Each structure stands twice: as structure tokens, then as C-alpha cells.
Amino acid sequence: MAENTKQAFLQYKSDQNVRWCPGCGDHAILNALQKTMAELEVPNEDLAVISGIGCSSRLPYYMNTYGFHTIHGRASAMASGVKVANPKLQVWQITGDGDALAIGGNHFIHAIRRNIDLNVILFNNQIYGLTKGQYSPTSKRGFISKTSPFGTIEYPFRPGELTIGARGYFFARTIDKEIKLSVHVMKAAAKHKGTSIVEVLQNCVIYNNNTHQEITDKKYKDDRTIVLEHGKPMIFGKERNKGLILEGITLKVVTIGENGITEKDILVHDAHCEDPTIHLKLADMEYPDFPVALGVIRDAAAPVYDECAQQQIEEIKEKSKIKSFHDLVTTGDVWEVK
Ligand SMILES: Cc1ncc(C[n+]2csc(CCOP(=O)(O)OP(=O)(O)O)c2C)c(N)n1
Ligand code: SF4
Ligand SMILES: [Mg+2]
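C-alpha cells predicted for 2-oxoglutarate ferredoxin oxidoreductase subunit beta:
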């Protein structure tokens, strides 16, 4: 293990030249992932970083770990196989909004439903970057691009809603340039057992510049986002005087000190609650009606596929009459092929 944090961080960098455009948000996400690994002190040989295809999916080249840059949309399928075959590996899946939610949508939801212990980083730049700017399943309605010259006529997926709809137990959101927050949520994702989805609001400077700016810009961030922390009241705003309450079955933004509202009225975040109702409402909050939720929104416990698969294999082995190759050839058992 490295002697200091700087050395630890460097041990996860590969010798490849990073080929993303200057100013691309992907650089900061790579940095955050390497910092996360350094803080968790995971041995390089215990890590596998698996991606599909896209600008974001180039990330495994830059990691000094096991890795696989696979085919478009198949990151979840490959990562699932790697984890189930070798549960000792800590598996990180790197994917884009196109890779995960368009061509790979099917694999994405089933990995979540199965609750395979994968840490998925979803780079959401609301565009197909690598193929030069087609709209994606997360592009805003009305978005003008090369494939939607008159504006899209469809509503986008919300990755948090999709995760929870697929019975997901972990969802977090961060912003590319907020490296400290990214490291915090990536560490939580690594510690969570089961599929962890981390959505990163990422800026593509070339094909969709400033798409998240109205909430990520320093000028507005404190008033237009809320960083959720388990066990803490849902307070936000530059003046720290805005909060969230439940009115009936809907969330509402209130101002502390107005209309008799005090800090005691503000909802307290329970990320570990199994019931996803409030988590879904928090994940779905959009500006300007609400602040956009950042941090760990959902982190609940549930049976994990790869652990259950291992356990099942052991139980079947235990019950089987066949304990060795010798048994296999001498039991006289035959497999009938119909
Ligand atoms: C089977 C197949 N279909 C289409 C493509 C073309 N293709 C490559 S990357 C990509 C979209 C990438 O978008 P995203 O996953 O959002 O990644 P980004 O480049 O934005 O990081 C597409 C359509 C391909 N490589 N393979
Ligand atoms: S095209 Fe966009 S997403 Fe791709 S490397 Fe350049 S800035 Fe990043
Ligand atoms: Mg994209």
C-alpha cells in the first residue's frame, strides 16, 4: 500500500494518455474515482472497471486496474458476468446516458432488479458525445440536435426514477466538478452491497455545453440544489433557510421563519428506509419547482444476487452425491437428454 494519499492516488492511474477533450467533465469524474479508490485503499488487483462504448466508456484505459472496454450497451451484462464469476472483485461499471439507457436499457434495468453488487457510474451529459451530438434518452423535451432539428417530442428518462422503478436499492447523484461530493457518494456506492447507481451530471463542452449550468453554476448551486445527508434535515439555500416538508403526499419547498415554519417541521432524510416512496419523490425533483437532489438519495439493504448465487452453489454441492471426479464416473448417474 502507498505511504501517502498522493502516492495512493497515483497508483490507480495507468500510463495511457487521457484523450477526452480539454474541459470535458469526464476528467473530473476520473479524478474522483481514483481518489475514491485511494481513500478506500483497494488493492489494484481487486478492481475491475468495465465500460460499454462512448466517450465516457474510455475510462477503463486510464485506470491501473483490470478493465474491459466492451461493446455498446453491454457494460451491465459484462460487469454482471465478471462479478458473479468472481465475487471477490470490486466491480465498477462506467456508462453513458446513451450506453446505459438507450441501447443498454434492458441490461441496465435487469442488473438493478437482480441487485448484483456493481458500482455503476452513469455519466449523464444528455447527449451522444462520441458519435457527435445526437439526442439521448435523457435529453430535455424540445432539445434541438442533429437528430432532432425541430426539437425532441418525447419526455426523457429520469435515471433515479428508472433505478427505483427497477427495484433499485441505491441511488446517488453528483456533479462532475464537485469532486469532494463525488468521492463521498462513490465511497458510499462501494460500501453498499447490491447495485449502486451514481448519476453524475456531466458537461460535454463540445456537443451540449452548459446543459446542467442552471443548477451547477456556482452562482445558483446553493439555491437550486440540495445535498441530502442521512439523518439530517432537508435544508438548503445560500442562507440555509429553505427546506422540504411533506404536504399530503407531495413535497413542498418552505422558508424557515415564514408562516410559522421552524427547523423542526423540516423532513429528516432517511436514506436507509426500505420503502422507496420518499426517495422517488426526492430523486424526481427538478428545477425550477424544486432544488435538484444531490448526495445519497437511497441506500437500503436487500439480498444480493452474487452472494445468493454463491450460497446456492454451496448448498447444491453439499447435497450432491457427486463430490469428486471419481464419484462422477462411478455413481452410475446419467443425464437424460430429451
Ligand atoms: C451497436 C452499436 N450501435 C451504435 C453505435 C454508435 N455509438 C457509439 S457510442 C454511442 C452513444 C454514446 O453516448 P453515451 O453513452 O451517452 O456516451 P458519451 O459519448 O456521451 O459519453 C453510439 C450511438 C455503436 N458503437 N454500436
Ligand atoms: S465530445 Fe463531449 S463528452 Fe466526448 S470527450 Fe469531448 S467534451 Fe467529453
Ligand atoms: Mg452521453
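The first strand starts at residue 47 and ends at 51.
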